[in-house]
Amino acid sequence: MPISQKTKLDDIAIDRIIEMAWEDRTPFDAIKFQFGLTEADVKALMKKELKFSSYKLWRKRVENCKTKHLDKRFEGIDRFKCKLQRAISNNKISKR
C-alpha cells in the first residue's frame, strides 16, 4: 500500500520525516512511533522526495550507520534524542 494511502502527510510532516531520516542518531523506530511509517515506507518517501543522487548517498549512510537500527545500537542507548538537548520548543537547542 503506498504511503499516501496509509497516512496523509502534509509538507511539514514530510520535511520532519526527511530531517529525522538524515539524522544519524534518530532510529527508524522513532519515525514509526511519531508518524506510523515503517523503515520501508521511509525509504520509499526518501526516494520520492529526494534527488536520486541524494537518495543513493543517504542509503549508503543508512546501511553503515549503527544508530539508525535499534538492533545495531550499543547497549545502554535507549532514547531518541541527546540527553543534553532541551525539550523541543520553538526548535531551540540549549547551549552549554
The dominant shape is: globular
Q: What is the N-to-C order of secondary-structure elements (H for helix, E for strand)?
A: HHHHH
Q: In what range is the share of β-strand residues?
A: under 5%
- Helical fraction equals 40-55%
Radius of gyration: 14 Å
Classification by helices and strands = mainly alpha
- The overall pLDDT average reads 75
State the end-to-end distance.
45 Å
- Summed up, the helix count is 5
Strands, count: 0
Largest sheet: none
Poorly predicted regions are: 90-96
Organism: Flavobacterium swingsii
Protein name: TIGR03643 family protein
InterPro entries: CHP03643
Mind explaining what this structure looks like?
It comes from Flavobacterium swingsii. Pfam families: DUF2805. This is TIGR03643 family protein. This protein has 96 residues and is an all-alpha fold. It has a domain at 7-72. 50% of the residues lie in helices and 0% in strands. The protein is built from 5 helices and no strands. The protein has helices at residues 3-6, 11-22, 28-35, 39-49, 52-64. Mean pLDDT is 75; it is low at 90-96.
